[in-house]
Write a structure and sequence with these properties.
Strand content of chain C: under 5%
Mean pLDDT of chain B: 92
Oligomer: heterotrimer
Strand content of chain B: 25-35%
Number of strands of chain C: 0
Radius of gyration of chain C: 19 Å
Low-confidence stretches of chain C: none
Largest sheet of chain B: 6 strands, mixed
Number of strands of chain B: 25
Helix content of chain C: 40-55%
Number of helices of chain B: 8
Distance between the termini of chain B: 11 Å
Structural class of chain C: mainly alpha
Number of helices of chain C: 9
Largest sheet of chain C: none
Shape of chain C: globular
Chains: A alpha/beta, B alpha/beta, C mainly alpha
Order of helices and strands of chain C: HHHHHHHHH
Low-confidence stretches of chain B: 58-63
Radius of gyration of chain B: 22 Å
Helix content of chain B: 10-25%
Structural class of chain B: alpha/beta
Largest interface: A-C, 62 and 68 residues
């Protein structure tokens, strides 16, 4: 195995404290792929990009740039598992890079704590790490349990991908990297209408009804594709489509029964790490995984 | 000594500038990459501002009464002594030499000798090969020996050797021995005093403009494609049909699909508003319901009557740029905000016609592209006393403006070449 | 520069147009593609991104009280499709900021902001959460240095502002 790559892991709030199985499975998968994650106690909430931005944008970009500065001081590239965190750090980093006035303003604030943000730091999400840094071939090599029976719908979500100039992703409307990773696990990629549709979560605080209506449209499209499950990176998308699926079903007046997996869980199932998935499934999954796990050849648990 | 010039591109502007200069005594070498001249206009039926039929006016001297613009009388081109036309030909290099240029061109074989052919067309009748016709939209076919359009100039057919079986039937039937299946490509070097770029534009097929599902449905088409259906000699005999073959009763048009768009082409394609209106009017005459989604209508003064008569004939206008045209239950649905009523509309129709951008063709040719500027368009005078451009090679526009520019450039070339003598 | 609640809408407009992202608003020709691309406009006819842009351009005072701006998903579909690449979601965010002192902010959004500015997390970290991490063998992430963060934000005045702010929004109590 090639030498370990080390990233500064930006944990955020949702994944480590609400949905730690995201972190657990992804850490194990990354370990197999020769990746090490380091954390820094100086990181705070990113802050989340859907509501805090609208409360005070200047505070948002300042705290975000501070988190980037903390990462910068570690000397490693940053990886965020959560799409919201990734978006916040990537956008702030890009803004600081592009806008000299902003950079100077923020660095004046950071000076008190001895930090500096340059805008040149590399902020990555898991697709950058898995698809670009590690590569599909290396992932395939670790697949011991190809998930040939499964048809998986990739849900990229908005904040992971947009805006391209900050996220450095491949395409704003038809991204491909998660598709390639899903294929590497042996599973089939489900094709569905409106691939980049929003999960609906960002307007939960403002209007639950509309929020869930947006979700229901998306789930209908995915269901129509015959997918066995949705795969996500973002814990907010997960909460909206998985945890709230019952409420969405009530609004849509249909039963979806669509399991949602984190990308870490899917990879774990394919790499013989199914135990960490089955151990935690009851606690974190409201939609039962029984059928899915059978199809994945790892039995119920 | 007689001065000469090379005109690259025999679209309407190239034809016009060649006609004017030959009339003024300049010798012209007119180079065209297609087998017939006329460029984009060979796809169109009626043209602005008079609604003349661009396809039918081609013919000959006899029809030309001296008052019409010469560009559409393509027959003239083949009948002038000081005008040498090279079809199926491409410029390979342009090098400066002495006071002018050495231009080398390569010509593909036509396999039919233009001097011998009497256009009896018996060769086409005996040909057994049938392939899809590039000029047809609804499944029309042509033979391996064919004429792209009946009114094409030169009138003689050509052979598409890729599909030809070399059975020899056409050779046998030809009474004037005009067909030579073994004809080879040829090269030529022309010494010239000036170069005129008239490479024109193409209608950019909207394959990759996000939102408009041109790729997925044959009921979402471009204007050149609609023009082919409106052509009485086309494969639908002038009937506008859906991909399923039904006669269309409702058409939605979308303007600025890819023009004035930072994602595609930043510039305004200038002519699409007018030809959309022209087509809308023609569709109304066929009793077809027409809705046009627009941002703003940009019609030049000389074509303003198209707007007035479209309104008069009941064309519906919605001010708004549609986000998408999607196919639902087999029909194209246009999703647009009517910005005047602020209503989000979902317009179902039988056919959606996209006004796609006019993109420069010159950039496809290396020696020519060296003379092009922003977006792939040229200045009218690229190089003082040497290289000129006219027509849509200088930027997208309509035919009247193109022709006016060709006339102006012709005079400029003439005075530069003959001036002071 | 930081938005002050004393700014008039004209000042806010001019300030916005001075921002690199806000400047893109000058390119808007009101074609309406944003609205026809918007998944919220699709289900809520009164949500119209194009009209928000128009109101900002015209310095309409009502934008500060426009509750509907909080219906923006920030999904950026409008920006992806905008022929002029106007940074619409970013501009709507700046319009939201304008409403804070008028209480135009969902209660849950305000709660989150208060969490972030007091404990450095968007949610309260409970001891069962920490125990779960321990059981899973996941490392302790420590506590964000709040003194440092709050000190850094002094010139923005956000901490004082959100203490005073009161949501008149209602909205959904989530989570």
């Amino acid at each position: 195995m090639s030498k370990a790559r080390t990233y500064t892991y930006f944990p955020g709030c949702m994944i480590p404290y609400r949905l730690p199985h995201f972190e657990l499975t992804m850490r194990e998968v990354l370990k197999k792929l020769g990746v090490e994650l380091e954390t820094s106690p100086d990181h705070s909430c990113c802050p989340e990009p859907t509501t805090f931005t609208g409360v005070d944008f200047e505070a948002w970009v300042t705290i975000a740039a501070r988190n980037v500065a903390v990462s910068e001081s570690t000397g490693n590239d940053t990886v965020a598992m959560c799409s919201g965190c990734f978006h916040t750090l990537a956008v702030a980093n890009h803004m600081v890079h592009e806008d000299q006035e902003l950079r100077e303003r923020i660095n004046k604030r950071l000076k008190k704590s001895g930090l500096e943000v340059t805008g040149d730091h590399s902020v990555k999400n898991l697709l950058h790490v898995l698809h670009n840094d590690i590569g599909i071939e290396a992932i395939q090599k670790q697949v011991t349990n190809p998930l040939k029976q499964l048809k998986i719908a990739p849900h990229y979500g908005c904040h992971l991908v947009r805006p391209l100039e900050a996220t450095n992703m491949d395409h704003a409307e038809n991204p491909q990297w998660m598709d390639a990773i899903i294929r590497a696990t042996g599973a089939e990629v489900a094709e569905f209408e409106n691939k980049m549709a929003c999960c609906g979560a960002p307007i939960m605080p403002a209007d639950e009804q509309k929020s869930l209506t947006v979700t229901s449209k998306h789930l209908k499209h995915i269901k129509a594709s015959g997918a066995d499950a949705i795969v996500v990176l973002c814990p907010t998308c997960y909460t909206q489509m998985e945890t709230q699926q019952g409420k969405v079903e009530a609004i849509a007046e249909t039963e979806f029964n669509l399991p949602v997996l984190s990308l870490g869980e899917l990879l774990a199932l394919s790499m013989g790490l199914s135990e960490i998935v089955t151990e935690n499934q009851r606690r974190y999954h409201r939609v039962k995984l029984t059928e899915l796990l059978e199809k994945a050849g790892v039995g119920g648990a | 000594m007689t001065k000469n010039a090379v005109v690259i591109g025999a679209g309407l502007a190239g034809i016009q500038v060649s006609q004017q200069l030959t009339d003024l005594g300049i010798t012209i070498h007119l180079i065209e990459k297609e087998p017939i001249i006329g460029g984009l206009s060979t796809y169109l039926g009626r043209v602005f501002p008079t609604g003349d039929c661009a396809l039918c006016l081609d013919a000959s001297n006899e029809m030309y009464d001296g008052h019409h613009r010469k560009c559409q009388y393509r027959g003239l081109v083949t009948e002038k002594k000081n005008l040498k036309l090279y079809t199926q030909s491409e410029v390979k290099s342009i090098t400066e030499a002495d006071s002018g240029f050495k231009i080398s061109i390569k010509s593909e074989p036509r396999y039919v000798n233009l001097d011998r052919c009497v256009v009896c067309l018996e060769c086409i009748d005996v040909c057994d090969v049938e392939v899809a016709d590039e000029y047809a939209l609804r499944g029309g076919t042509r033979k391996a020996i064919y004429r792209p359009i009946p009114q094409g100039v030169p009138h003689a057919p050509l052979i598409d050797l890729e599909h030809c079986t070399k059975c020899g039937k056409c050779v046998d039937v030809c009474k004037v021995n005009a067909i030579d299946l073994e004809e080879k490509e040829s090269s030529k070097t022309i010494n010239t005093d000036a170069v005129i770029i008239a490479t024109g534009v193409e209608e950019k097929i909207p394959l990759d403009f996000p939102g408009y599902e041109y790729r997925t449905s044959d009921d979402i088409i471009s204007h050149a494609e609609l023009a082919r259906m409106l052509d009485p000699t086309g494969d639908t005999n002038g009937v506008v049909t859906t991909s399923a073959g039904d006669v269309v009763s409702k058409v939605t048009m979308v303007l600025c699909v890819g023009s004035r768009d930072k994602t595609a082409f930043e510039y305004c394609s200038q002519a699409c508003c007018t030809y959309s209106l022209k087509h809308a009017e023609m569709l109304r005459e066929l009793g077809i319901d027409v809705t046009i989604c627009y941002m703003d209508i940009r019609v030049p003064n000389h074509s303003f009557h198209y707007l007035e008569s479209s309104i008069e004939k009941g064309v519906k206008f919605i001010r708004g740029k549609p986000d998408k045209v999607v196919v639902r239950s087999g029909k194209p649905v246009t999703v647009v905000e009517d910005t005047q009523s602020q209503k989000l509309m979902q317009i179902e129709s039988d056919l959606v016609v996209l006004a796609s951008p006019l993109a420069p063709l010159g950039i496809g040719n290396d020696p020519v592209s060296a003379f092009l500027g922003e977006y792939g368009f040229a200045q009218r005078v690229v190089k003082e006393r040497k290289v000129y451009a006219c027509g849509t090679a200088t930027g997208p526009t309509d035919i009247p403006t193109s022709i006016a520019e060709a006339n102006a450039v012709a005079l400029r070339v003439y005075s530069d070449l003959k001036g002071g003598i | 520069m930081v938005t002050k609640d004393t700014m008039s809408s004209l000042e806010v407009r001019n300030w916005l147009l001075d921002q690199p992202e806000g400047e893109t608003l000058l390119r808007c020709y009101q074609c309406g593609r944003c609205t026809s691309a918007c998944p919220v406009a699709d289900i809520e006819p009164s949500f119209n991104p194009r009209l928000f842009l128009q109101k900002i351009l015209l310095s309409d005072e009502l934008i500060a009280e426009e509750q509907l701006v909080w219906n923006c998903l920030t999904c950026e579909q409008c920006e992806v499709r905008c022929p002029e690449h106007v940074k619409i979601p970013h501009i709507l965010i700046l319009a939201k900021v304008r409403g804070l002192m008028k209480g135009n902010v969902p209660a849950a959004a305000l709660d989150r902001a208060r969490n972030i500015l007091s404990i450095g997390r968007s949610l309260e970290v409970s001891s069962p959460m920490l125990k779960t991490r321990e059981k899973m063998g996941l490392p302790d992430l420590g506590t964000p240095p709040m003194d440092q963060i709050v000190a850094m934000l002094v010139d923005i005045g956000i901490v004082g502002k959100i203490e005073k702010a009161e949501s008149i929004y209602g909205g959904t109590e989530n989570e």
